[in-house]
Structures are given as C-alpha cells and as structure tokens.
Design a protein that fits this description.
Layout lengths: L20 H24 L17 H6 L6 H22 L10 H11 L2 H14 L4 E7 L5 E7 L10 E7 L6 H4 L3 H8 L5 H11 L1
Antiparallel strand pairs: 1-2, 1-3
The structure holds fe (ii) ion.
Length: 210
C-alpha cells in the first residue's frame, strides 16, 4: 500500500490571514511529505501488509492498522504509529479547514450543547486541550465508543483511532504548525483556527460516526 501525499483542497494562501501561506507550504510540502516518505519506507519492510490473503490479522489500510497497533509487526510498529499517524492526521487536518464560512449542523450543535453545556463551553474545552498538551501533539473532538462526543488530546502523532475513537475535528499543536506566524503564542493560533474550521467536513464525519 503506497501512501501518496494528497494535494491541499485549497490554495496555499487560502487560509490567510489565520494560517499563513509560508506555514502551509512548510507544513504540507515538507512535514506531511516526510511522514508519507517514512511510512512508505516502514511498510516496504513488510510487503505482506495490505495483502489480506496472506495476513488477515493485519489491517489492509492505515486506519485499520492504527486501530490495532499491537498487530503491526514490532520492528516497524513505532514508525507506523509516528509516520502513518502523521499522514492520517495531516490528511484529515487539511480537510478540516476552509476559507468558506461554514457552521455546525443542527444535530451536531445540539449534541455539543448537550455534552458541553454550550458552544462556548465546547470551544473552551477544546482550546484547553490544545493549550495544555505539553510538547507536540493534537487536540481532538471525537465520537467515542459509546457514541458520545468527547474532547481530548494526544501526544506526538498518536491518533484517537488507536483508542477506538473517531476523530471529527483535530488541531495540530506541533510548533511546526504555528511557529512561523504565531511564534510561541499557541493560544492565538488556537483562536485563529476557529475562524477556518470546515464545519461541513466535521458534520459529515459526525454523521458517519453516529
Ligand atoms: Fe503538523
């Protein structure tokens, strides 16, 4: 299964002034591309992965591999977690942003209110998860195994998929995601992210997860 770097679904400068063009080039063309290169190198050591007839216990795609990391061959396990997770997280992240004005669906908005109290309470919980993630990682809104919304953060490139949870919104809080424009002020980057969230995509993922 060769993984391919997906194109951005918009121009590199489309998210200005919230996310700057230089960051988008570095982040997509360099950082994301490196995860793609490295996960392909890891998977190349086990060409049986993805050929279901030989190893039905091993997932056929990255999502299913990362859903059961213990089934990944030990010699490439951490490389797949880091770089396969890096690829999946970033591929999702690009789709979760848009220059268009979008809003949560009525169903999602009602669930957010019921779960967190209000949309502002959800924003505060998400921002807190993003702000307090020490070092590198991601903040997430997920649908958990019980079908409930949950805000959490993960370290490094770990995906909520490995915890049996379906990510429907995610924010990259690695310094490479914001340092060019926001320097060390992660909270300003988190605030800006809320201006470019593609709620149409979040709504779609929410509906599919429920
Ligand atoms: Fe990133």
């Amino acid at each position: 299964m060769a993984i391919v770097l997906p194109d951005l679904p918009y121009a590199y400068d489309a998210l200005e002034p919230y996310i700057d063009e230089e960051t988008m080039h570095l982040h997509h063309d360099k950082h994301h591309n490196t995860y793609v290169t490295n996960v392909n190198a890891a998977l190349a050591k086990h060409p049986e992965i993805g050929e279901d007839s030989k190893h039905p216990e091993i997932g056929e795609d990255l999502e299913s591999l990362l859903a059961d990391v213990n089934a990944i061959p030990a010699d490439i396990r951490q490389a797949v977690i880091n770089n396969g997770g890096g690829h999946l997280n970033h591929a999702l992240f690009w789709e979760l942003m848009t220059p268009e004005k979008t809003t949560p669906s009525a169903e999602l908005a009602a669930d957010i209110d019921a779960t967190f109290g209000s949309f502002d309470d959800f924003k505060a919980a998400f921002a807190a998860a993003a702000t307090t993630r020490f070092g590198s990682g991601w903040a997430w809104l997920v649908v958990n195994k019980e079908g409930k919304l949950e805000v959490l953060s993960t370290a490094n490139q770990d995906t909520p998929i490995s915890e049996g949870k379906t990510p429907i919104l995610g924010l990259d809080v690695w310094e490479h995601a914001y340092y060019v424009k926001y320097r060390n002020v992660r909270p300003d980057y988190i605030k800006a992210f809320f201006s470019v969230i593609n709620w149409n995509k979040v709504n779609e993922l929410y509906a599919a997860a429920k």
